[in-house]
Design goal:
- The protein is of the alpha/beta class.
- Helix content is 36%, strand content 15%.
- Helix 2 runs parallel beside helix 3, helix 4 packs across helix 6 and helix 6 packs parallel to helix 10.
- The radius of gyration is 19 Å and the shape is globular.
- It starts with a strand and ends with a helix.
Amino acid sequence: MPTIMITGAAGFIGGHVAREAERRGGLSLRLMSHRRPPAGAAGAGPATAGSATAGPDPATAGPGSGSGFGHGHGPGAVVPGHRTVRADLSDPGSLRGVCEGVDVLLHCASQIGGTPEANEAVNARGTAALMAEARRAGVSRVVYLSTASVYGRGAFRAARPEELVRNPGSPTSGSRAHAEDAVLAAGGVVLRPHLVLGDGDRWVVPGLARILRALPGTVEGWAARTSVITAQDLARLLLGAGLAPAGDLTASVYHAAHPAPVTVRTLLGAVAAVAGPAADPAAEDLTAVRARELLAARGIAAQGLDMLTSDHWFDSDPVWRDLRCTPGPDFEAAFKELAEGYRRALLDI
């Protein structure tokens, strides 16, 4: 029975990964979280590891991935009998020995926002220290949950990692690029999602709802295309990348999204349907410049408009093919399953 350690296991994506691992069965889980134990997990052992929960990169997203369907935390993981370990990525000494006996490390934890120093301490230096522990303990596979935010701003159309140059635009995305470097130097695999939806999201859909409510109409037709994935599908990819035979992996960096991009018009229409009457768009079609002015007047960061007015479509066919995994439902079908949870979460927005 392979032992898998999941960092950020009490957070948004880490919680979904833990639940997916439990559903799959035949795995021994070690759940790493320094803020709180994942729901249903066994108590923490002495002087082992935890980490910051994964969340959004504000470089590209008011919309981004976060934690808690309106509850301020992730969905956790119902994993009775599996071990929870505690420590802190910002304290490398606390990581000593955390990877002993671990076969696969799924690193889903990141510091998001906060000071540049905090991002550097957790994402860059913390990940480097964790990779040193993984090498020392002989971990056979490391998979890191990164973000397409490492590319910075731009228009991306069916883009593959090997065609793009990283150009992070914030301390968070810059430090996550450094984390990628540490993982790749250790022989690990990096997955880069863009927008992540699901139980535990308090950034993507809530952020889009705020934008919709602040604007009196569409912005230049909302014609851009964007890459989206559900947290459940992302969990399947992370776990699959951790367990796949080495010969099946044709790359060390993959984009992680549903293969079919979504138009921003479709995405925002779905958000408007759950966000209440205030999100109903008017007939007016705004320029991006005017939209930024309106958002600024309401104190809403306009960075998210870059994602909504230019293509952010990342080719993810290779990861599904290499992992021999079938994508889940397309956006419209998947969002129907999530709509009621989002509707409840958006009552306070």
